[in-house]
């Protein structure tokens, strides 16, 4: 099975997928898509890889998969070990809920196209930062007690799950947006612990081939 990930180094959605691929121990090719230069709008990319003009896109054996959660679920179904979901149905639902808080409720309000739209509507830089911080804090406020209750090193239990694949990139984003993580000690601890895992470390934005270092 050949795998090629179309990714932007700093974007959190492909960051999730990189973590998942690494946790599954899968080798994959990497194609950088520079969102700042608008490469996601190129006709070839849109028609062949992602109709939403977004990353990630994962090419495999003649198929192209999009949407990070769908890709992670596909990885879980096609490469079940090591598992990213618990065996108990209620626990699986909890992990999926934790992942969804990040991927469905926090991130969509803070990604680059929303930032650009806010700018077009006349919101200044300070206002855009406040907007981003508001929704990250809102989501983390719901997620914190879940991690505190269920986490045993990682976000849920003592091994990486789908929740960690989403949480770690979102904490990275929160730090970029200067969110104070002091009110979220369980989240901060889980992200720090996961960050020491080789699969997470290798997926970090700064270690990607298209990374831009200041």
From TrEMBL:
One of its GO terms (cellular component) is cytoplasm. One of its GO terms (biological process) is glutathione metabolic process. It comes from the Bacteria. Its EC number is 5.2.1.2, 5.2.1.4. Residues 88-213 form the GST C-terminal domain. Keywords: Isomerase, Pyruvate. One of its GO terms (molecular function) is glutathione transferase activity. It holds the Pfam family GST_C_2. It is an enzyme of class 5 (isomerase). Residues 1-83 form the GST N-terminal domain. Belongs to the GST superfamily. Zeta family. This is Maleylacetoacetate isomerase/maleylpyruvate isomerase. It comes from Phenylobacterium haematophilum.
């Amino acid at each position: 099975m050949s795998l090629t990930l179309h990714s932007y180094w700093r974007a959190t959605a492909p960051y999730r997928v990189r973590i998942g691929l690494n946790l599954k121990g899968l080798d994959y090719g990497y194609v950088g898509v520079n969102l700042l230069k608008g490469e996601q709008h190129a006709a070839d990319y849109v028609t062949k890889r992602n109709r939403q003009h977004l990353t990630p896109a994962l090419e495999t054996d003649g198929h192209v998969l999009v949407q990070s959660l769908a890709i992670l679920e596909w990885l879980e179904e096609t490469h079940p070990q090591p598992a990213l979901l618990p065996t108990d149905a209620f626990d699986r639902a909890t992990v999926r809920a934790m992942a969804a808080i990040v991927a469905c409720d926090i991130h969509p309000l803070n990604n680059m196209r929303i930032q650009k739209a806010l700018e077009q509507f006349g919101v200044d830089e300070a206002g855009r930062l406040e907007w981003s911080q508001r929704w990250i804090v809102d989501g983390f406020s719901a997620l914190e007690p879940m991690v505190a209750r269920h986490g045993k090193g990682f976000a849920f239990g003592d091994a990486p799950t789908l929740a960690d694949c989403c949480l770690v990139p979102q904490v990275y984003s929160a730090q970029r947006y200067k969110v104070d993580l002091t009110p979220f000690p369980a989240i901060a601890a889980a992200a720090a612990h996961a960050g020491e895992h080789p699969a997470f470390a290798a997926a970090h934005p700064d270690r990607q081939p298209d990374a831009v270092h200041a």
